[in-house]
Amino acid sequence: MVNKATFHFYEELNDFIASDKKRLAYIYSFYGNPSIKDAIEAIGVPHVEVNLMRVNGQVVDFAYHLKDNDRVSVYPVPKTGKKASKVIKFILDVHLGKLAKYLRMCGFDSAYQNDYDDKKIVLISLEENRIILTRDIGMLKMKSVSQGYFIRNQDSKAQLMEVLQHFDLQQAIDPFKRCIKCNGKLERVEKEKVMQRLQPLTQKHFNTFFKCENCQSIFWEGSHFDRMSGFINTIKNSENP
Question: What interhelical angle do 223-236 and 97-105 show, nearest 10?
Fold first, then answer.
């Protein structure tokens, strides 16, 4: 016998719902008594995007099993519940390389390699307590995933603003503390110690240098530094993604 439950998804959870069913009562048909987690993800919403569920007015967890005629309300993680923190750590999927560089530029610990597969990303997320950022909804539905966020925007700069707003991080930006190449920490280094690695014009015109403690790359305050500084100031002063 086919059973039915009525779902209501609130706020940004509607981003995952078919356009003709957004913000409407969603009738979900099912056999037996599936878990509410399985039902929510079958509809299209990753479990990591869900904060609270009520069935017939009562709060339930993901272990709850649906019954015929249940009325289910599903709420997202509230943005006001996220605290800005310099210690927040991310890991990004292979399609978000530019976003990884922008996050590193802003000082956030952001692991990324273009050869990581989904299992590797999830494993690192669990081992290092990192939040997964991805455009792959399927990854966020993996049972072992405990922290994750689906990136809505496709433009990398818009993605950065989206992440900063979603995690309330604009006031936690601490630029030029991370290597944009490998995510290692940057440390100030005396010019004399890196002189042999510099081009003649760089030796002549610049005096402030930084070295990545991981990949040993050298950075200095050239025109690229001014452009990045301007970009970060614009980001910090923006209120909307």
Answer: 90
Distance CA 203, CA 162 (A): 39
Predicted model pTM:
0.86
- Cα–Cα distance between 167 and 173 in angstroms, integer? 12
> Which residues pair with residue 54 across a beta bridge?
59, 73
The vertex-161 CA angle with 149 and 113, nearest 5°, equals: 55
Q: How far is CA 3 from CA 17, 38, 58, in A?
A: 21, 15, 20
Asked if 179 and 119 count as a contact pair (C-beta separation under 8 A), the reply is no
Closest-CA residue to 43 (of 16, 80, 11): 16
Distance from C-alpha of 88 to C-alpha of 125, rounded to nearest angstrom: 12
- Give Cα 7 to chain centroid, integer Å: 26
pLDDT in tens, 83-120: 444 479 999 999 999 999 999 999 999 999 999 999 99
SS3 14: helix
Closest of 87, 78, 182, 179 to residue 131, by C-alpha: 87
